[in-house]
């Protein structure tokens, strides 16, 4: 057994080489870029210190915003993401990033290491461009060469490898940012034929963008942030980038030929840009960027509360008096969260929650950890809604895309005044294990916009309302004729029910 273990450890030895520490760099000052100048003009009539915000609820707008922000960039682009999936939407954004780098824009891309599994060279080839640098956060240092060795490597260091950088942040010229729940991939922009992740992003400019630039730099310069090229035997050079560009162009041309409607919808930003209109329509208010300290991933046990985003958010949750609307794709309140929410509801606050149904979730085992809390939540007087797999096509929120929907949003509205939007799910993983980022805005106008979206999601045509019929849970929803029906069996396939049951039996809650 010792020999087998030794052989296993030896097989994990990768090509890791950290001959020199990565260079530090800081967010570039906005300077006199057209984008920063435009924001400054829009801010002149606003109270000092306020930031501008625009809600990106529709999938098309969320993609368009990213593409147009690349085109508007003059000095820098900083991207921080948990997932960087291949696909048409990602390919189009990468083409735009390369074009921006060609005109002298500095591009920094920081990815959670999980998204690079098996794709180190493919992603690192972007860094062959002199104006692009790619780093991975919390990387696996051994066993990166094959799927089985990567799995073993993560298992041997599970205490840290199950902790991930879940942040989603887009920053252009240190002036305008996007925060929210969307990663990069077709499924986040309604460009995947079979699945659309419904989500909410927030376009943010002004002082809050400067705060988010500080958060990016903290992660970029942290010791867990490593240039992806350090894990390659040979760094890609200019000829490899030329070849990659040709392959990318061919892939996009092929996708255009196979699905011209999808292609035309995605590239509409080239013909009818909207960024200028959005900047005119910004809601100006006091905003505060919240993020977990990157040291959170280094904790041997539970991290120091001072490092946590939830610690910064809690005072605002404790001040609630009238209403709390919460949407979380993965919702596991845990014992303390259940206690806090129950006390809030019993104090007279109208509490309504929206999460995925078993049939809609992309992670059934998470639903299995959440399900046991439903009875206690309902008994406390909390309304509970679960997104349906095929919601009403007339929904104006990204619930109603061209594909089946699964909830991916993370947001809350407090007393119709404060709104929080970010990458933070209300579950133990976001609280304790992953790092997150978001923005809290004190604005009745913006809060009302988000509130209307959430209430649309909390309707019987879009979601199931979980309720009691005697002592039994039932699911209320309207049928095709608009009549309210009562389902006495939880919707979802046998396969999904089995996964949820296993999660409960194995006690996986803290790991989820």
Gist of the model:
With 512 residues, this protein is of the alpha+beta class.
In words, what does this structure look like?
- By secondary structure, this protein is of the alpha+beta class.
- The chain has two domains: 233 residues, Endonuclease, Chain A; 220 residues, Endonuclease, Chain A (2-Layer Sandwich).
- It has 18 helices and 20 strands.
- The strands form two sheets. The chain has an 18-stranded mixed sheet, with helices on both faces. It has a two-stranded parallel sheet with strand order 7-14.
- The radius of gyration is 23 Å and the shape is globular.
- 48% of the residues are buried.
- InterPro entries: PLD-like_dom (IPR025202), PLipase_D/transphosphatidylase (IPR001736).
- GO terms for molecular function: phosphatidyltransferase activity.
The assigned structural class equals: alpha+beta
Described by strand count, sense and barrel closure, the largest sheet is: 18 strands, mixed
| Helical residue percent band | 25-40%
**Strand coverage percent:** 15-25%
* Rg from alpha-carbon coordinates: 23 Å
Organism: Pseudomonas flexibilis
GO biological process, one term: cardiolipin biosynthetic process
Keywords: Signal
Domain PLD phosphodiesterase: 161-188, 403-430
Q: What are the defining features of this structure?
A:
single chain; 512 residues; alpha+beta; Endonuclease, Chain A; 2 domains; 18-stranded mixed β-sheet; two-stranded parallel sheet; 21% strand; globular; disordered N terminus
């Amino acid at each position: 057994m010792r020999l087998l273990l030794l052989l296993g450890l030896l097989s994990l030895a990768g090509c890791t080489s950290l001959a020199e520490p990565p260079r530090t760099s800081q967010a570039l000052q906005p300077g006199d870029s057209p984008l920063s100048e435009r924001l400054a003009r829009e801010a002149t009539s606003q109270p000092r210190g306020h930031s501008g915000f625009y809600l990106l609820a529709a999938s098309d707008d969320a993609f368009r915003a990213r593409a147009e922000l690349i085109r508007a960039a003059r000095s820098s682009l900083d991207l921080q993401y948990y997932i960087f999936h291949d696909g048409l939407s990602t390919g189009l954004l990468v083409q735009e990033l390369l074009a921006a780098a060609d005109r002298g824009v500095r591009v920094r891309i920081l990815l959670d290491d999980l998204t690079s599994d098996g794709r180190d060279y493919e992603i690192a080839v972007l860094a062959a461009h002199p104006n692009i640098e790619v780093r991975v956060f919390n990387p696996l240092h051994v066993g990166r060469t094959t799927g089985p060795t990567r799995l073993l490597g993560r298992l041997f260091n599970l205490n840290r490898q199950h902790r991930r950088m879940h942040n989603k942040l887009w920053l252009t010229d240190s002036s305008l940012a996007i925060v929210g729940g969307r990663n990069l991939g077709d499924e986040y922009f309604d460009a995947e034929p079979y699945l659309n992740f419904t989500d909410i992003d927030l376009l943010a400019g002004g002082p809050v963008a400067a705060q988010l630039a500080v958060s990016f730099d903290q992660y970029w310069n942290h010791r867990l942030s490593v240039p992806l090229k350090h894990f390659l035997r040979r760094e890609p050079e200019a000829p490899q980038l030329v070849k990659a560009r040709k392959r990318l162009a061919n892939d996009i041309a092929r996708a255009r030929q196979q699905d011209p409607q999808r292609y035309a919808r995605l590239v509409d930003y080239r013909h009818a840009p909207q960024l200028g209109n959005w900047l005119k329509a910004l809601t100006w208010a006091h905003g505060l960027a919240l993020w977990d300290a990157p040291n959170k991933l280094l904790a041997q046990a539970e991290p120091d509360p001072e490092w946590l985003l939830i610690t910064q958010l809690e005072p605002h949750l404790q001040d609630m008096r009238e209403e709390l609307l919460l949407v979380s794709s993965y919702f596991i309140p845990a014992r303390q969260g259940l206690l806090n929410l129950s006390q809030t509801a019993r104090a007279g606050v109208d509490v309504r929650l929206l999460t995925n149904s078993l049939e809609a979730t992309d992670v059934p085992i998470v639903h299995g950890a959440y399900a046991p809390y439903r009875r206690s939540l309902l008994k406390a007087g909390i309304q509970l809604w679960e997104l349906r797999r095929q919601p009403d096509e007339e929904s104006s929120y990204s619930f109603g895309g061209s594909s089946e929907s699964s909830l991916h949003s993370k947001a809350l509205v407090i007393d119709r005044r404060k709104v929080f939007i970010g990458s933070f799910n209300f579950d133990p993983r976001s609280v304790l294990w992953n790092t997150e980022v978001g923005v809290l805005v004190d604005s009745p106008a913006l809060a009302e916009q988000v509130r209307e979206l959430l209430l649309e999601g909390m309707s019987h045509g879009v979601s199931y309302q979980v309720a009691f019929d005697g002592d039994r849970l039932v699911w209320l929803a309207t049928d095709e004729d608009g009549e309210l029906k009562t389902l006495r069996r939880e919707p979802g396939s046998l396969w999904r029910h089995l996964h949820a049951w296993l999660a409960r039996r194995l006690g996986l809650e803290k790991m989820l």
